[in-house]
Design goal:
There is one protein chain. The chain is an alpha/beta fold. It is 35% helix and 21% strand. It contains 10 helices and 15 strands. The strands form 3 sheets. Strands 1-2-3-4-5-6-7 form a 7-stranded mixed beta sheet. Strands 8-9-10-11-12 form a 5-stranded mixed beta sheet, with no helix packed on it. Helix 7 runs antiparallel to helix 8 and helix 8 crosses helix 10. The radius of gyration is 20 Å and the shape is globular. The model has no long low-confidence stretch (mean pLDDT 97). InterPro entries: Metallo-B-lactamas (IPR001279), RibonucZ/Hydroxyglut_hydro (IPR036866), Sec-metab_biosynth-thioest (IPR050662), WH-like_DNA-bd_sf (IPR036388). This is MBL fold metallo-hydrolase. It comes from Streptococcus suivaginalis.
Length: 331
């Protein structure tokens, strides 16, 4: 348990069998009710950690409300548990609808369709391998919409709701201008990099959109970021610069991995580039992580198509990419 700001506490929630290991849930302690920001998986170990953390603070589960910053199961998985015990659930409209679609199953039908686009077979990975599928909330829950630009007041905190689209289509942040703090969840992480994945043609070039979000954050005055994983970030400008550099380096690696006059699939490229995964080949890659790796590859390929570095064609439901330029630069 750690007090990161007067009245704001954080403690780790276990994420079983995940490379992330844990998520930081944040608690703002109130006089009558307290506020929880993000939950952990819908899993007994995550729930046990949540209940233990609240107990340390002397907070009853029946006396809390919940803000969900984005749809991923490690942030929303216990929403049903909180709702059933009287919590009001707050979320952005886009991701709120999507985490409810996860519970109903509609979301997973969309994700399943991406495998064909990527050129990945059913034997290589299945929806059942995705941790989001296994650990999402039990059923859809009613939620109160936090509109972008609106203010959400809790105790002596006055949070402006920021649009942090990129890591997910409707990721939000809670920003207290006077106190110079921002609950940024998975938009900026240190030392790991947030996964930026393909969300369908409804959200074209999501990587570019994400970097535009980073650009807006970079222009903000000095703030302390409270992220969903790893360490609190005091120098947001330096970390944002590192993240932007990382993605351009990643795109150059992708261009280098594609031969002249070669047509490649998302799977082809995913298997050629480097990942921080203990696996000697794509065949040995953990199936749950193939979902994240292929989606991230697609997001970078989509950027390179829009920037004129690659061409993209669709043949029998599979996307193929061909290199048009050898180098990419931030300029």
């Amino acid at each position: 348990m750690r007090e990161v700001y007067p009245g704001i506490y954080t403690f780790p929630i276990c994420l079983p069998n995940s490379p992330l290991r844990e998520i930081h849930s944040y608690i703002i302690r109130g006089e009558e009710r307290s506020l929880v920001i993000d939950t952990g998986y819908n899993h007994p170990e995550s729930l046990a950690d949540m209940e233990a953390g609240l107990a340390v603070l002397g907070i009853s589960i029946q006396s809390v409300d919940l803000v969900i910053t984005h749809l991923h199961a490690d942030h929303s998985g216990l929403a049903t548990y909180f709702y059933d015990r009287g919590a009001r659930i707050f979320a952005g409209k886009v991701d709120g609808d999507l985490f409810n679609a996860m519970a109903s199953g509609e979301y997973w039908k969309m994700l399943e369709s991406f495998k064909t686009l990527y050129g990945i077979s059913d034997q290589e990975m299945a929806i059942e391998d995705n941790p989001g599928y296994r650990f999402c909330l039990d059923r859809a829950v009613p939620f109160q919409v936090l509109e972008i630009g609106s203010h959400f007041q809790f105790g002596n905190f006055d949070f402006e709701i920021l649009d942090l689209i990129g890591h997910t289509p409707g990721h939000i942040g809670l920003y207290d201008r006077d106190k110079q703090i921002l609950f940024s969840a998975d938009t900026v992480l240190d030392p790991i990099t947030p996964n930026i994945t393909f969300w369908g043609w409804e959200y074209p070039n999501i990587l570019k959109t994400y970097m535009e979000t980073l650009g807006r954050l970079r222009k903000m005055p000095k703030i302390t970021l409270f992220p969903g994983h790893r360490k609190v970030i005091d120098d947001h400008v330096s970390r944002i610069d590192q993240l932007i550099d990382h993605h351009f380096e990643r795109m150059q690696e992708i261009l280098d991995a594609i031969g002249i006059d070669e047509k490649v699939t998302v799977r082809d490229v995913s298997a050629r580039i480097k990942w921080r995964i203990k696996a000697d080949s794509w065949d040995q890659f953990p199936k749950p992580q193939k979902w994240f790796a292929s989606g991230e590859t697609m997001a970078h390929l989509d950027y390179l198509v829009e920037s004129g570095h690659l061409s993209m064609t669709l043949n029998k439901g599979v996307l193929y990419f061909k290199k048009l330029q050898n180098c990419i630069s931030k300029g």
